[in-house]
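User: For a teaching handout, I'd like to show students what a predicted protein-ligand complex looks like in token form. I'll give you the sequence and the SMILES for zinc ion. Please answer with just the structure.
Assistant: Understood, here is the input followed by the structure.
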Amino acid sequence: MRDAGVILAPCGPSTLVGRCPFHDDHAPSLWLYPDSGLWGCNRPDCRGAGVHDVINFRALTKRISNRAAIGQLTDEFL
Ligand SMILES: [Zn+2]
């Protein structure tokens, strides 16, 4: 998420929050549980709404398929 320009700040013991890169966010709507890597946006009409994982984040930011995102992440981290 840092690579995508998202600045995260702690919000409680196990949650980070930041401005969502998928809509014009003026308040921190994006949440992330770093332990599980799950994240989402609190704005219901946002592409980031719901519960997502790191593969979905790559796919949404790069506008690629989940399969392509898996390939990129595999190349970078394995
Ligand atoms: Zn959003």
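For the handout, you might add this sentence: The pocket of zinc ion is lined by residues 20, 22-23, 25, 29, 41, 43, 46, 48 (CB under 6 Å).
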